[in-house]
Amino acid sequence: MGPHRSGPEIARESSWSLPRQIVPGRYAPFMVGQDKFHTYAFCDARPGFAKEVRPGDVLVGGENFGCGSSREYAVAALAKLGIGGVVAKSFARIFFRNCINLGIPVLESADPLALVHDGDAVTLDLARGLLRAPAGDAHLRPLAPFAREILAAGGVVAYLREHGDFPPVA
Predict the structure, then answer these.
(1) Which fold has domain 3-141?
(2) Which of 27 and 69 is assigned the larger pLDDT?
(3) Does residue 6 surpass a pLDDT of 70?
(4) Which of 19, 33, 80, 109 allows an S-S link to 138, with CB 3.0 to 4.6 Å?
(5) DSSP letter for each residue of 32-80
(6) What three-state secondary structure class fits 91?
């Protein structure tokens, strides 16, 4: 993955982002349609986000990123916008799995917000386990082998189509 601008430092003060902040329930796919829901990503927390973000951009967050619900469409909106990955201090487990299932790399790092500022050109180097930023490199916690396999396939549905079953867990 080459250099990309970082995504926003979502909810920096509270250091977590709720799926209802990613896509508020009033803009759920069943409310506005599958063709539009992603255009409301972060509409309350960061108006204009969906128009500014570019494919491959990386979201950087703090603790318990994505907590609050199991809304898969929040992650689906990020996938439709082409988010290249999410790096945070920690993740809500359901958000984490939804990202893996939909093919978005999601990685933990000790304090990525200390190194990345909104709009920085960053490189998400999955092979070396680094988020490279102008202020330095953030070391990434390695993903489990089965999660890497699912991501390599493009998500859980693509993995199942190719392999017919889930990857073994070591």
Answers:
(1) Aconitase; domain 4 (3.20.19)
(2) 27
(3) no
(4) 109
(5) H-TTTGGGGTTTTTSTTHHHH--TT-EEEE-TTBTTT---HHHHHHHHH
(6) strand
